[in-house]
Amino acid sequence: MIDLMDVVYCRLGTRDLAGAEWFAVNILGLEVSERRRGAVYFKSDARAHTLCYVEGGADQQATAFEIGSAADLDRAAAVLDGLGHPVHAGTADECDARHVRGFIRFNDPSGNPIEFVLRPETTGRRYHGTRDAGITGFSHVGLCSTDPARDELFWTEVCNARVSDRIGDAPLMRFGTIHHSVALFPFHQPGIQHINHQVQATDDIHRSLAHLRANQVPVTFGPGRHPTSSAQFLYFTGPDGMTFEYSTGVCEIHDEPLWRDRQFHFAPKGFCQWGSAPKIAAFKD
Ligand SMILES: CC(C)c1ccc(C(=O)O)c(O)c1O
Ligand SMILES: [Fe+2]
Question: Which residues does the UniProt record annotate as the domain VOC (predicted)?
Fold first, then answer.
């Protein structure tokens, strides 16, 4: 079993690094933590970075999860290799570019590039964006899955994720107490489906709604409330068509032995209890 602790960052390729930076700062509300040749890093909480845009194709993506020790990382590489997932061990330069002490990269069964990382840097300094979006941190990622049942087994049997709830066959999975850190959505190809940042309060959702509208940013779902995590949410489109989500009030699961994953409809009522309907391809039946 590969023990993962949390989702830690996403890397997104873009052909318009300056445009992506403008969006991340002025619309999403992140803080630039560092600029390097061909890469811009963003903070959304105390961690050194939780998002990195790199110059390249929009298909150059990765989602990173923290692993507990160097021995666990070696064991994970052996397990993945044994299961037929070719593993690349990060070079010193690649580790430096990710602010981690070590990592391995492989593709999940759908072909999503995944990184398991050791000791990602934190700063002890809280984040503050120039735009007050009320962000409290990067919280979860939605991954496209060409076979959610198969991929659920990868995350829960090969790794230590636990299913909190399912919407249709799409599992929302946790590593700790937060309702979900990774969710899988049926789609015909792999890719990061959405990136979630938690915000402090309902006010932040509505303040952002006005800001997005004023800046002609397509709002694709919400405001609404997820019946699964009980979080209030808002989805919108960013650079290269990436979906971003703000949400507030995600529930925590503390009664671990008693929790039973629940089944929700893969239909608007399973996504939103206020009646909002998504304009997002992966959320349509
Ligand atoms: C709309 C997607 C499928 C979705 C559904 C539920 C939650 C949640 O319970 O918080 C999400 O975060 C989602 O992105
Ligand atoms: Fe989400």
Answer: 6-119, 137-249
Instruction: Note residues around ion ligand 2 (Cβ under 5 angstroms).
Output: 196, 245
% pLDDT > 90, the chain: 94
Q: For 86-110, how does the pLDDT look when each residue is reduced to its tens digit (9 = 90+)?
A: 999 999 999 999 999 999 999 999 9
Helix (H, G, I), strand (E, B) or coil at 8: strand
Is residue 219 within 8 A of residue 176, CB to CB? The reply is no
| Most ligand 1 atoms within 8 A of CB, residue of 271, 274, 276 to mutate | 271
With a 6 Å cutoff on the Cβ, whether 266 touches ligand 1 is: no
What integer best gives the mean pLDDT of the chain?
96
Q: How far apart are CA 200 and CA 266, in angstroms?
A: 28
A 10 A CB-CB count for 95 gives: 17
3-state DSSP assignment of residue 55: strand
Provide Rg for the chain, Cα atoms.
Answer: 18
Q: Is 71 exposed, middle or buried (0-12, 13-18, 19+ CB in 10 A)?
A: exposed
To 10 degrees, the CA torsion angle through 169, 142, 160, 249? -100
Task: Give the span between the Cα atoms of 284 and 281, in whole angstroms.
Answer: 6
Residues 155-165 pLDDT 10s: 999 999 999 99
Strand 102-107, strand 39-43: pairing: unpaired
CA of 271 to the centre of ligand 1 (A): 6
Q: Which domains does the chain have, with CATH numbers?
A: 4-118 (3.10.180.10), 135-283 (3.10.180.10)
